[in-house]
Amino acid sequence: MTRLSTIFLLAGLAAAPVLVSAPAHAQRVSKVSGKALGQMCSSKSSIGMCDAYLSGLMDGEAWAKKYDTFAHDESAPVAFCVPAQQTAPQIRGLVVAWLHAHNDALTEPAGKAVYRALHDTYPCHASAPAEGQK
Questions:
Q1: How far is residue 102's CA from residue 128's CA, in Å, rounded to a whole number?
Q2: Signal peptide span per the entry (predicted)?
Q3: Is the predicted pLDDT of residue 100 greater than 90, yes or no?
């Protein structure tokens, strides 16, 4: 997977918590517009990025289902809360570091591994990334 594909994949996963009903949190959301996505998905040179973005978004929804049973519980935790000021390179670096520290995740589907990494790294009850959580 290319670097840009990884960025789009992470952006799609970062958008997944919006689907969970919980207290509002300032959260990083991709700035990719519908127009930009349409262009990306229509150009032969960026089809791979489009597929990665769509796969990431679908993975995010699938893994968000884990928290679906808490939809009406205001005190339930949100899957993860990526601060709005986090950049894609920062998120990518933290996910890669998390993967290096969690060998068990290397044989899991990528969506599940990234979901776990974001959940551990960006808990919603803290404003800064967690250090060494598993």
A1: 20
A2: 1-26
A3: yes
Instruction: Give pLDDT tens digits for 23-36.
Output: 455 677 778 888 88
DSSP string, the chain: --HHHHHHHHHHHHHGGGGS-SS----------HHHHHHHHH-GGGHHHHHHHHHHHHHHHHHHGGGGGGTT-TTSPPS----TT--HHHHHHHHHHHHHH-GGGGGS-HHHHHHHHHHHHS-TT-SSPPSS--
Query: What residue ranges do the domains of the chain occupy?
Result: 3-121
CB under 8 Å to 37, separation ≥6 — which residues? Answer: 50, 53
Cβ distance 90 to 45 under 8 Å? no
Predicted TM-score (pTM) of the model is 0.56
In this structure, how many other beta carbons lie within 10 angstroms of the beta carbon of residue 52?
24
- One-letter amino acid of 88: A
